[in-house]
Amino acid sequence: xxxxxxxxxxxxxxxxxxxxxxxxxxxxxxxxxxxxxxxxxxxxxxxxxxxxxxxxxxxxxxxxxxxxxxxxxxxxxxxxxxxxxxxxxxxxxxxxxxxxxxxxxxxxxxxxxxxxxxxxxxxxxxxxxxxxxxxxxxxxxxxxxxxxxxxxxxxxxxxxxxxxxxxxxxxxxxxxxxxxxxxxxxxxxxxxxxxxxxxxxxxxxxxxxxxxxxxxxxxxxxxxxxxxxxxxxxxxxxxxxxxxxxxxxxxxxxxxxxxxxxxxxxxxxxxxxxxxxxxxxxxxxxxxxxxxxxxxxxxxxxxxxxxx
Length: 308
What we know:
By secondary structure, the protein is mostly helical. It has 10 helices and no strands. It has 2 domains: 2-157, no CATH class; 161-262, Receptor-associated Protein. Helix content is 84%, strand content 0%. The two termini are 45 Å apart.
């Protein structure tokens, strides 16, 4: 029995590691493909310019056909509600995959785990029928569920980093606008000087504005993507500034002050919850030790008095 569960656990860990390796390899391949596409914009007289027909037939025809078939298959089996929010989560987590391919990869990994563990359970001697049926299902569920949990964890980390970087972003925006830059120029300064997920989000806002989307609408989309209350208030302030014709610098100053007060209130809220959170460790670990130290000698004396 223990050997079966140990084998199933090792197989599950191996499959999860294999899936992570495949995702990293796919990301590296995506970067290589982007480099190859960018190299196509080089001048024709460059020494690095290559003819497209010089590439192998597998790379030119077979691989694109297989990629298109995989994408179409994934699009057909992916639920509609899954696709609605998954693209945003994948982008926040830094995964260079579409929602369809991501869902298909999870299904393929779960099916592979089901087959491998099922064959291993049937080949091992001394395994009951219930164990042979249960072990593959449990391992396949673990392999299917783990990427989703890992993705949600990375998304929450990215959103936390965005909220943490907002004071610096609004200060930089306010200083840039007061220095005479337009709002899009201030956004370029943010993209150029801030690191992390917040840079990607504001780069998308800048790209939306360059496509002709109003800045209030682009910022509202940013707030909706990140579900950040300070960004929602900032988008409302920018929309109000556009309607009334007031200066954007005033809105930036108000938002910079508001975000600092918001961070201070969050810190006070967390500090106020510490006494409640510390009750359970005290009751579980500290109070028993105190009772032993305080009441231990009295208990020993009573036992000696009654000859127990």
